[in-house]
Specification:
The complex is a heterodimer of chains A (398) and B (110).
Chain A: H1 5-32, H2 38-65, E1 68-69, E2 73-74, H3 93-111, H4 121-144, H5 148-152, H6 160-178, H7 194-213, H8 221-247, H9 253-270, H10 276-299, H11 308-326, H12 329-332, H13 343-373, H14 380-385, H15 387-392
Antiparallel strand pairs in A: 1-2
Chain B: E1 2-8, H1 13-22, E2 29-35, E3 42-46, E4 49-53, E5 56-65, H2 70-81, E6 89-95, E7 98-100, E8 107-109
Antiparallel strand pairs in B: 1-5, 1-6, 2-5, 3-4, 7-8
The chains are: A mainly alpha (398), B alpha+beta (110).
């Protein structure tokens, strides 16, 4: 139980990098909505960060990482961070706690895609509290806190299951409950500020180095591997999505940055198990898969407005399965299909399938409960004027 | 010739533009504007507090048409731009003295 100063310094920095991803999501989403909802979209990510911070400190961390109760949930031993101190194994327990906190926060921020331009902020705070407690915390416990997925040997290096599948499929369920924006499908709702979306995407890409490399929980070779494959997959995803959209017209910059995020989401679970060449394949496939998922979403006329499902959900499922296909024993000590082992792919499929089901069903129920009690949506008039004015009393226009 | 100035809902702009094009009105100048009508904007009542939004974003379309096309333009904008609620906008028709092209020396006087 000694503290390694190198590891501690590294994880402190990674935590700050991951924190920056939450406002990054805000900027990314903010540019995609109409101007009258920009402040709302950006503010929701800060709301997510603040709500999760308090939830995590009071009891969320304990539910996720307290000693295992029946494989499903953590005990209440760390409530209020009692027993979480400056000592630890390699890094201080407090640092591990806050590193996990920033993951939980960005996950809730990703979900705001589903409610863009129509959510009542008070209802989102309540929903966010419930969602983090009943969806995120159990999933984090199952995979990383010694729960049933960890027992089975299901792998998720940095959050393909816990962060991306849960946020993506949660967003889909939430979008179906809250309903479409007024005028969805009738008139165009084009992004109002593409450079802002690109800037948000850039912060996400940057923060993702902390997300994936930091998940090695040490400043070592595995962290370097995660860093390198993360960058490769992002670039591959960007190029693949760009190529696919180029065939249908022009290579849009929003498509390119979406492809990068698709690549980042997919490499997240696999970053500690694959090498550089596998990362290219994972990124390219993710870029294409998420692009066609987005087109499918539009054809289905689902107003999962900013595509958390198509990009994080579908990319997360692919990345989780990709461990079972491409894992190399030399990197993370696990062999995938390509190295002749079928077992891991089967485990990954169970993990991804169970998460899709759990996240979708529980989110659907929670959203229904909030909708029936408080109402998730603003009134039609408030939606028409925009959430900046109706929810915050502020406007980007003077 | 008449200048038609239409102030409409931003979300109805695409529909109005296409409907005008179908009726042969292609040339136009478009501006994003803010304004208010007889209701002095919107007053939102949300949970005890009241926020008044007195200037609401609108789209202004300006186009010059022949006198005999004015009725068609008004009818088209109404059909494509109407929701039936307050805030659908206004159409103003004004006389035009001269319409001169910049590219060539072609001038139409009324």
């Amino acid at each position: 139980m000694t503290i390694d100063t190198g590891d501690t310094a590294f994880i402190l920095i990674c935590t700050a990098l991951v924190m920056l991803m939450t406002p990054g999501v805000g900027l990314f989403y903010g540019g995609l909505v109409r101007r009258k909802n920009l402040i709302s979209m950006f503010a929701l990510s800060f709301v997510a960060f603040s709500v999760v911070t308090i939830q995590w400190v009071l009891f969320g961390y304990s539910l996720a990482f307290g000693s295992d109760v029946g494989g499903v949930i953590g005990s209440l031993e760390y409530v209020g961070l009692s027993g979480v101190g400056m000592d630890g194994d390699g890094i201080p327990d407090l640092l591990f706690m806050v590193f996990q906190l920033v993951f939980a926060a960005v996950t809730l921020a990703i979900i705001t895609s589903a409610v863009a331009e129509r959510v009542k902020i008070s209802s989102f705070i309540v929903f966010g509290l419930l969602w983090t407690t009943l969806v995120y915390d159990p999933l984090a416990h199952w995979v990383w806190g010694g729960g049933w997925m960890a027992e089975l040997g299901i792998l998720d290096f940095a959050g393909g299951i816990v962060v991306h599948i849960s946020a993506g499929f949660g967003a889909l369920a939430l979008a179906l409950v809250i309903g479409k924006r007024v005028g969805f499908g009738e008139y165009s709702m084009e992004p109002h500020n593409i450079p802002m979306t690109l800037l948000g995407g850039a912060l996400l890409w940057f923060g993702w180095f902390g997300f994936n490399a930091g998940s090695a929980l040490a400043a070592d070779g595995l962290a370097a591997n995660a860093f390198v494959v993360t960058n490769i997959s992002a670039a591959s995803g960007a190029l693949a999505w760009m190529a696919a959209s180029w065939i249908r017209g022009k290579p849009s910059s929003v498509g390119m940055i979406s492809g990068a995020i698709a690549g980042l989401g997919a490499i997240t679970p696999a970053a500690g198990f694959v090498g550089p060449l596998q990362a290219i394949i994972i990124g390219v496939v993710s870029g294409l898969l998420c692009y066609y998922a987005l087109l499918f979403r539009i054809r289905q006329r689902w107003d999962e407005s900013l595509d958390a499902w198509a990009i994080h959900g579908v990319g997360g499922v692919w990345g989780t399965l990709a461990i079972g296909i491409f894992a190399i024993a030399a990197v993370g000590g696990v062999s995938g299909l390509v190295e002749g082992s079928f077992n891991q792919l089967l485990l990954q499929a169970v993990g991804a399938g169970a998460t899709v089901l759990y996240a979708f069903v529980v989110t659907f129920v929670l959203a229904k409960v909030v909708d029936l009690t408080m109402g998730l949506r603003v009134s039609e008039e408030e939606e028409y004027v925009g959430l900046d004015i109706s929810q915050h009393g502020e406007s980007t226009q003077v | 010739m008449k200048m038609v100035v239409a102030i409409i809902r931003p979300e109805k702009f695409d529909a109005v533009k296409s409907a005008l094009e179908v009726n042969g009105i292609v040339g136009m100048t478009v501006t994003e504007v803010r304004g208010r009508g007889a209701q002095k904007g919107i007053s939102l009542q949300s949970r005890g507090r009241s926020i008044s939004v007195d200037l609401i974003p609108k789209i202004k379309i300006e186009t010059v048409v022949r006198d005999d096309a004015v009725e068609t333009v008004i009818r088209t904008i109404r059909e494509a731009g109407r929701t039936g609620k307050y805030g659908d906008g206004r159409i103003i028709v004004m006389p035009v003295e001269v319409l001169a092209k910049v590219r060539i020396d072609e001038t139409e006087a009324d």
